[in-house]
Amino acid sequence: xxxxxxxxxxxxxxxxxxxxxxxxxxxxxxxxxxxxxxxxxxxxxxxxxxxxxxxxxxxxxxxxxxxxxxxxxxxxxxxxxxxxxxxxxxxxxxxxxxxxxxxxxxxxxxxxxxxxxxxxxxxxxxxxxxxxxxxxxxxxxxxxxxxxxxxxxxxxxxxxxxxxxxxxxxxxxxxxxxxxxxxxxxxxxxxxxxxxxxxxxxxxxxxxxxxxxxxxxxxxxxxxxxxxxxxxxxxxxxxxxxxxxxxxxxxxxxxxxxxxxxxxxxxxxxxxxxxxxxxxxxxxxxxxxxxxxxxxxxxxxxxxxxxxxxxxxxxxxxxxxxxxxxxxxxxxxxxxxxxxxxxxxxxxxxxxxxxxxxxx
Length: 360
Fold this sequence. Notes:
Layout: E1 4-5, H1 18-23, H2 25-42, E2 45-46, H3 47-52, H4 58-76, E3 87-89, E4 97-104, E5 113-115, E6 119-121, E7 124-126, H5 129-141, E8 144-151, E9 154-155, E10 164-165, H6 173-188, H7 195-216, H8 220-252, H9 257-282, H10 298-306, H11 311-320, H12 325-335, H13 343-359
Parallel strand pairs: 1-9, 3-10
Antiparallel strand pairs: 2-3, 4-7, 4-8, 5-6
């Protein structure tokens, strides 16, 4: 399950805007988002009370207890938990929202949507399935690769008291703890218009925090599983980076339509052999499944890379800061002061590069 940053506006903001609602897709979209956010907020129940209530279903009680402990540990790590995940909401369905991504068929270039405060983001979340499908069809008709996927969680960056949603309870203990740390990481550091950096950083914080959390609880098996999940994220990040590199060479040659489709098919063949061979051999927890059967889809690739962009830089940052996640988080906040967009990776690369040169 992947998480998204999804800034919502309460529907009340649009009271009296009936004409605008009928005329504007954006207003309809924001109104629906506001309505859904209002429903979620209305359904909230205090997690601590539910976790302590003997009448709460045992599996849910255990999960919520883990969330409470993870939140407390996040504060010890210097993460800004704010009010995130102090409450729980059952959304009454398996899928919370659909996330749409798009990209041209001849470029690894994300289609982006612009939002207030957070800047440009290469995805759009929809609570309305039909609206998501209409937007996907519109972009597909314009020749874009499109990728529409479910998401079980989102962050409002601390603007609202984000509850833990029932859709986030589908993973195991490691994934649940990592989700808590991931979402709280967004509260702690968010670089405007830098989605791959933000999501990859939150992945780094999520799994390393989970590893420290379980280790300090004396659960070496789950601590190792968290470490193995992070290892697999790095392996998959390297695979996707290699595939994207091959495709960029193809696209930079500006092939005609026939050569483009043949080149994409050849790249898919390379990916299939890699996934079934060296990549599968290195993975510790991730199951390849039907991934080798997928054709090339630039939007899907961008979606996969959003959470796995230059994870090696974050590992080098971790090493530079004595493999201490608390120290790494604090120093990253300082490093990223005043940064926007692609400058985030430029600054991080310079910082860890300088560290490597000094160590030599």
